[in-house]
Design goal:
The structure is a single chain. This protein is of the alpha+beta class and 346 residues long. Helices cover 25% and strands 28% of the residues. The protein has 2 domains: 158 residues, Aminotransferase class 4, branched-chain amino acid transferase, N-terminal domain (D-amino Acid Aminotransferase, Chain A, domain 1, 2-Layer Sandwich), CATH 3.30.470.10; 162 residues, Alpha-Beta Barrel (D-amino Acid Aminotransferase, Chain A, domain 2). The strands form 2 sheets. Strands 1, 2, 3, 4, 5, 6, 7, 8 and 18 form a 9-stranded antiparallel beta sheet that branches. It has a 6-stranded mixed barrel with strand order 9-10-11-12-15-16. Strand 1 and strand 2 form a beta hairpin. Bound molecules: pyridoxal-5'-phosphate and 2-OXO-4-methylpentanoic acid. The site of pyridoxal-5'-phosphate has 12 residues, from strand 12 and helix 6.
Length: 346
């Protein structure tokens, strides 16, 4: 109890960054001889890793990101955990790793939340408990082939919004210099290599004073792919429009916003979005677990020198706010879970 109040007093919940804060416990599980072992609880922040593991040499690694929210009723809510479990299986298959079973994923997530309850940010702080599962090839190989051993790790850390300012609009830069993923590559999987590949573009955007880079399709550089570690959406004519692409991560948040938009009487379209169409949107945003919805204020295209503007007086538009309010109300339990997305962690 004393430690709990220490944490409550020392952490500035309302101003938490999207960063790593040590918590008490994490979970590990090991795959060997063709099967997964039992979930193990650890209080160490470190792992012992084989010097020849396929994760270190050939990037055989995938991860996930989901959040737990404290409700006004003191109950902890998990948002669409099963989608993350399924996507981790798809990522594992994509880079030929052993899959981590959905039921074990559930057990691990519930366990890690329970063990770290005191780190769940309070209701109304705007922060949440970020849950980070990862899976990697831990057995030794020198030839390029899948490992025969795997490690699953699950840790949590309390976080604030990914983009500084939370719902404050951000500026984005179109990036033609670097690609994040190839059309038939691993862009649809949540594998570490995609993020390493994105770092030059992120740095390019940050150095120029932008919150992040907008990636275009690698084949033609004509269509919008994604917004850093988040999906893109644009709004016009009561329609929510989001890119369909063979090289983006299919965002669970985006999928949820499509459902919410339709429930609010909007039309929705998932299709290729050409850069020129940016001109016709009245609002735009980036969405993801970490980003939630980050409204986009401006997008600069260095080729055409055009600046596309989406916010009047620095304020997000009405559609973005409606979508954001509905999403966070469902996640926190302020509104009924009409789509069956929320699991209470008892
Ligand atoms: N796109 C990329 C590249 C991401 O890393 C993420 C984060 O997970 C997203 C989109 C958003 O996906 P989700 O809403 O499932 O978190
Ligand atoms: C998430 O939104 O959960 C992500 O994984 C983004 C992260 C790479 C910062």
């Amino acid at each position: 109890m004393a430690f709990k109040s220490y944490i409550m007093e020392t952490l500035d919940w309302k101003n938490l960054p999207f960063g790593y804060i040590k918590t008490d416990y994490n979970i590990r599980c090991f795959y060997k001889d063709g099967k997964w072992g039992k979930l193990e609880v650890s209080s160490s922040e470190h792992i012992d890793i084989h010097i020849a593991s396929t994760a270190l040499h050939y990037g055989q690694e995938a991860f996930e990101g989901l959040k737990a929210y404290m409700g006004n009723d003191g109950r902890v809510r998990l948002f669409r955990w099963e989608e993350n479990a399924k996507r981790m299986i798809s990522s594992a298959e994509g880079i030929r790793m052993a899959s981590f079973p959905v039921e074990m994923f559930r057990e691990a997530v519930f366990k890690v939340i329970d063990l770290n309850r005191k780190f769940i940010p309070p209701y109304g702080s705007g922060a949440s408990l970020y849950i980070r599962p990862l899976l990697y090839g831990s057995g030794p190989e020198v030839g390029v082939k899948p490992s025969s051993e795997y490690t699953f790790i699950l840790f949590v850390t309390p976080v604030g919004p990914y983009f500084k300012g939370g719902i404050k609009p951000v500026d984005m830069l179109i990036c033609r210099e670097y690609d994040r993923a190839a059309p038939l590559g691993t862009g649809t999987f949540k594998v570490g290599g995609n993020y390493a590949a994105s770092l030059r573009a992120v740095e390019y955007a940050h150095k120029a004073g932008y919150a992040n880079a907008i990636f275009l399709d690698a084949r033609e550089k004509k269509f919008i792919d994604e917004c850093g570690p988040a999906n893109f959406f644009g709004i016009k004519d009561n329609t929510y429009i989001t890119p369909k692409s063979e090289s983006i991560l299919n965002s669970i948040t985006n999928m949820s916003l499509v459902t919410i938009a339709e429930s609010l009487g909007m039309k929705t379209e998932r299709r290729p979005v050409p850069v020129e169409e940016l001109e016709s949107f009245t609002e735009a945003g980036a969405c993801g677990t970490a980003a939630v919805i980050s409204p986009i204020s401006t997008i600069f295209d260095p080729d055409s020198k055009k600046v596309y503007e989406y916010c009047k007086n620095g304020q997000p538009g009405p559609y973005t706010m409606k979508l954001y309010n509905k999403l966070v109300a469902i996640q926190s339990g302020d509104e009924p879970d009409q789509f069956g997305w929320v699991t209470i962690v008892e």
